[in-house]
Amino acid sequence: MQKGQLAKRVSILGAAADVFCREGFSGASIDEIAAEAGVSRQTVYNHYREKETLFMAVIQDIMDRTNGVLFSILATFPERADNLEEDLAAFAVRLNKNCICNQDAKFIQKLIATEGNRYPHLFQVWREQGPGKTDRALAALFARLAHLAPLEIDDFDLAARQFIALIKADLQMGGLFGEAPSDAELEDSARKAVRTFLRAYGREQKTGSLEAQTLISER
Fold it and tell me: Structure pTM?
């Protein structure tokens, strides 16, 4: 692709993302996207044929960008067990800040909330390359960590989904209103989530709890 064509395609994708985010899929028009991109209506059609094709290209572009960041964050997952709670909390902060609470994630969440029921097929790429890919990669990391740390995990896929759910639980309400969490909120949420996760899956905590229950029953 020539530089001029590539520049137009980038401009169209950026404008389309803005319009889809603002108007939703059904409310967005090719004319409005073309105007914001500074190109003609026909140029948009020459590149993407129809609105649905353009929408799916926007989703794919966001997922490509998101996955690049995601896997750089996953590469920082703890590999040692001697400071597990602190290391997992720091990892959770990075994951939330750069992947779960960034602008691309907010864009996808808003579109799914407004258009997911009417156009589920439009989000197939997101299903396959978003949460599904993240959960699988994180499950593999927890499987590796379980050999080094005092963790007792029977289902690594479930543990990965629960970890993600916990680290973003306290941040979801603000996200619904477009609020960006502060660094302090990110850290507090991560610490609470990791503490809860380790209470569920930490072998030492389970053993201690079992011993306490035994003592109580004996009394």
Answer: 0.80
Other CB atoms within a 10 A radius of the CB of residue 132 amount to 11
Q: Residue 79 in 3-state DSSP?
A: coil
pLDDT single digits (tens) 79-98:
988 999 999 999 999 999 98
CA distance 166 to 37: 39
> How many CA within 13 A on the CB side of residue 170?
18
CB 193 within 8 A of CB 92: yes
pLDDT one-digit tens code per residue, 194-219: 999 999 999 864 444 444 444 334 44
Q: Give the residues across from 151 on adjacent strands.
A: 202
Could you tell me where the beta strands, DSSP code E, fall in 23-164? none
Q: Are 49 and 41 in contact (CB under 8 A)?
A: no
Residue 54: CB atoms within 10 A of its CB come to 25
